[in-house]
Design brief:
The mean pLDDT is about 90. The protein has a seven-stranded antiparallel sheet. Strands 1-11-12 form a three-stranded antiparallel sheet, with no helix packed on it. Strand 4 and strand 5 (about 60-65) form a beta hairpin. The protein contains four helices and twelve strands. The longest helix has 8 residues, at about 5-10. With about 170 residues, it is an alpha+beta fold.
Length: about 170
């Protein structure tokens, strides 16, 4: 028996309960984003917590939409989208874009970016990009976008998500 076979026999692979995984990973605070795009029928978008910067050269970011998403295939087809980093107080915007409702943009002001994607009003930051690559991410797709344009508002604080609830960034004076 090889060393690897002996290790496998002595330490069988532990199966991780998805509920426990979600609970443990929920201890990692994340920002909340809404990914948007423009279509001939009007703007579309979805809430996405799985977002991060990836590369400075070339400038790349990544989002990870769920494979069950009905919105992501439409954004993929368009090839360009905007990642809107929500600000504190935009809990309802996050919740609205997380639902399957006909018009997620009802009552949500926005302006088009230079590339036509919706930039939501009052966000902390926005990153306009075009789809660069996609990778298998289990029950999610890892979508990498090349950054085309971006902007931020230093006077706003981000909306955070931690342990299943929205939170605020506290700053000590």
């Amino acid at each position: 028996m090889s060393g690897a076979e002996r290790d496998a026999a002595e330490n069988p692979e532990r199966i991780v309960d998805p509920r426990v995984l979600r609970d443990v990973l929920g201890h990692f605070a994340s920002g909340v984003t809404v990914v948007t795009a423009a279509t001939a029928e009007g703007p579309i978008g979805f809430t996405c917590q799985s977002f991060h910067s990836l590369s400075l050269a070339p400038p790349l970011v990544a989002v990870a939409p769920a494979r069950a998403s009905r919105t992501w295939p439409r954004l993929r087809e368009i090839g360009r989208f905007c990642v809107n980093v929500l600000a504190e107080g935009q809990d309802e915007v996050s919740q609205n874009f997380a639902r399957s409702v006909p018009d997620k943009f009802a009552g949500v002001p926005w302006t088009p970016s230079a590339h036509g994607s919706p930039v939501l009003a009052d966000v902390v930051a926005w990153i306009d990009g075009e789809l660069w690559a996609e990778y298998d991410g289990g029950d999610h797709t890892i979508a990498v976008a090349r950054v085309l344009d971006l902007g931020a508002h230093a006077d706003r604080r981000p909306l955070l998500f931690h342990r299943g609830a929205y939170g605020l960034l506290r700053t000590e004076a």
